Amino acid sequence: MGKKLSEDKREPIETADCSLHSWNDDDKPRERLLRSGARSLSDAEILAIMLRTGVPGRNVVELSKDILAFVGNDLDRLARLSVRDFMANFKGVGEAKAISLVAALELGRRRGSAAARDAVHISGPDDIADYFRPLLMDLDHEEFHILMLNRAHNVIDSFCASNGGVSGTVVDMKLIFRRILTYSASSIALCHNHPSCSAQPSREDEAVTAKIKAACGFHDINLIDHIIIGGHDYYSFADEGRL
């Protein structure tokens, strides 16, 4: 790993074909950002600033356009690419470039997640999906989250109950309800993602929902919904009359 990082650092920053430095000032994304603001830049130009340099035979904006074309100009698909994906699919992109891209995209995802938390009142399935979508939709693995609400259905907090699956053996009921009772939540909502982008529930999803609903009844806590995020779509157990 160390060797690849050092190789990537040796990329020729001043090479005319690959770098931003040889461009006219009016054409340089960095200078345009300073002059007109980030919103004046195209997606490819913003990506070029993140990449810093191109690769042999492709300047940095051309490389950026290649990357965007690979994901069909879909920023959601771009955010799902891993370090390994960038290195495997774009010749000359080493670990340092790939890590920079993944880190920047993760920061954008977290910003979206933080914005969702500002909408603290939950009135229905759309609100639950909107709260969790920035956090879950780009993951390449399953995560199971609990949203805790007070009597007015305002968000108290949320937490990840399991990572990597939603089977009854993975979701620890004791830990879940210890956390819920600590926060004195009156209601909860469940949410997990399907990396396959299909929002339809599996038998395991149905079994875990039933198990948690039964435990909620024992603790006098209202389970208002279980949302499954699949890409831009979601499935609501409440909307389907399954709670």
UniProtKB/TrEMBL annotation:
<keyword id="KW-0479">Metal-binding</keyword>
<keyword id="KW-0862">Zinc</keyword>
<dbReference type="Pfam" id="PF04002">
    <property type="entry name" value="RadC"/>
</dbReference>
<dbReference type="InterPro" id="IPR001405">
    <property type="entry name" value="UPF0758"/>
</dbReference>
<dbReference type="Pfam" id="PF20582">
    <property type="entry name" value="UPF0758_N"/>
</dbReference>
<protein>
    <submittedName>
        <fullName>DNA repair protein RadC</fullName>
    </submittedName>
</protein>
<feature type="domain" description="MPN">
    <location>
        <begin position="121"/>
        <end position="243"/>
    </location>
</feature>
<dbReference type="InterPro" id="IPR046778">
    <property type="entry name" value="UPF0758_N"/>
</dbReference>
<dbReference type="GO" id="GO:0008237">
    <property type="term" value="F:metallopeptidase activity"/>
</dbReference>
<keyword id="KW-0378">Hydrolase</keyword>
<dbReference type="InterPro" id="IPR025657">
    <property type="entry name" value="RadC_JAB"/>
</dbReference>
<dbReference type="GO" id="GO:0046872">
    <property type="term" value="F:metal ion binding"/>
</dbReference>
<dbReference type="InterPro" id="IPR037518">
    <property type="entry name" value="MPN"/>
</dbReference>
<dbReference type="GO" id="GO:0006508">
    <property type="term" value="P:proteolysis"/>
</dbReference>
<keyword id="KW-0482">Metalloprotease</keyword>
<comment type="similarity">
    <text>Belongs to the UPF0758 family.</text>
</comment>
<keyword id="KW-0645">Protease</keyword>
